[in-house]
Structure formats: C-alpha cells, structure tokens
C-alpha cells in the first residue's frame, strides 16, 4: 500500500505459510525511500505484527539491517521482503517444534507419574518374612473365627477330611484295625 509519493513511503504485509491449525505469523513493514536510494538504505520499520514475540521482532529488524547493508547499490525491497518471508517461515517451524517438544515432555511426565504410581516397595528377605508372618497370623485368626462360628452353630461334627487333617494318627488307623 502506497502511503506517500514524496518521499515514497509504502507498506508491505508479509505472511508466513500456514502452520498447524492454520496458524500464521504476519508482519507489516513500512519502507520509505531516501533521496539516494538504492545507494542508501531505505528507512524501514515494523508497523504491526501478529503472533510474534519481542525477540522475533528484534531478529527481523536485525535481518533487515544486515540484508540492506549487503544489497547497497541495488534495488533491495524484494530481497528484504523475501528474507523476512523466510524468517517468518522459520519462526512458524520453531513454534511447531516447541509445541511438539512440550507435548513430548508432557507425555514423558505422564509416563513417569504412571511408573511412580505402580512402583511399590522393593521386596527383600526381611520385608517378605515380616509380611509372611503377618499374613499367616491373619489366616490363622480367620480359621479360628470360622471354627468358633461353626461350633456355635452346632456343627461340632467334623468331616472325614477335617478329622484326618487334625489327627494324623488316623492315617494308619485302618491298617491297625485290619491287622487286629
């Protein structure tokens, strides 16, 4: 867009290629020709910018300075705009990379949390023996309660299996009976 004829002043809006989710980075550059242009660098400034942080704006200004100095004596607006276009595309790529890294970092953190959740007490001989003693005591207590409940319910009669489990002398009693 041409703003003034004397001195020639115009703006050019430079937009990056669309990134993820059609995110774009955009800037509007204002150029003003000096009297001795192209033997003298044009005046330039960033009029507006979209989705750029301050560091990116400073990088673009430095890039414009460098390109203008390199192209003294030649018509350079196209070169300057092309350089800014490339820089904006790099910025979009950096944003993509940063987001992917953040996503990977979150996945790693979630994975670590999951590992921590399932990580228990390491088993050692001492730990196991302590646990086994407690477990056996709990089982014995459960059996005692069950026996008391059965006795109170009138189930004093033991089954054959229970008799053999309680008194091992019964294992050989049939053989002794037959011998007599």
From TrEMBL:
Residues 99-118 are annotated as: Disordered. Keywords: Acetylation, Phosphoprotein. Gene3D superfamilies: 6.20.400.10, Ubiquitin Conjugating Enzyme. Residues 99-117 have a biased composition (Basic and acidic residues). One of its GO terms (cellular component) is cytoplasm. Residues 1-91 form the RWD domain. It comes from the Eukaryota. Protects DRG2 from proteolytic degradation. PANTHER family: RWD DOMAIN-CONTAINING PROTEIN. Belongs to the RWDD1/GIR2 family. This is RWD domain-containing protein 1. It comes from Chloropsis cyanopogon.
């Amino acid at each position: 867009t041409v703003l003034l004829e004397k001195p020639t002043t115009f703006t050019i809006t430079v937009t990056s290629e669309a990134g993820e989710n059609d995110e774009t980075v955009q800037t509007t550059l204002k150029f003003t020709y000096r009297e001795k242009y192209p033997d003298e660098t044009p005046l330039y400034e960033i009029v507006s910018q979209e989705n750029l942080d301050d560091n990116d704006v400073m990088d673009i200004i430095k890039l414009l300075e460098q390109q203008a100095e390199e192209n003294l004596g030649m018509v350079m607006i196209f070169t300057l705009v092309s350089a800014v276009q490339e820089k904006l595309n790099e910025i979009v790529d950096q944003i993509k990379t940063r987001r992917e890294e953040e996503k990977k970092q979150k996945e790693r953190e979630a994975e670590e949390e999951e590992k921590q959740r399932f990580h228990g007490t390491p088993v050692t001989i001492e730990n196991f023996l302590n646990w086994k003693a407690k477990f056996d005591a709990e089982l014995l207590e459960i059996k005692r309660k069950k026996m008391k409940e059965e006795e109170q319910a009138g189930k004093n009669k033991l089954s054959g299996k229970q008799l053999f489990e309680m008194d091992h002398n019964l294992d050989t009693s049939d053989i002794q009976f037959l011998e007599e």
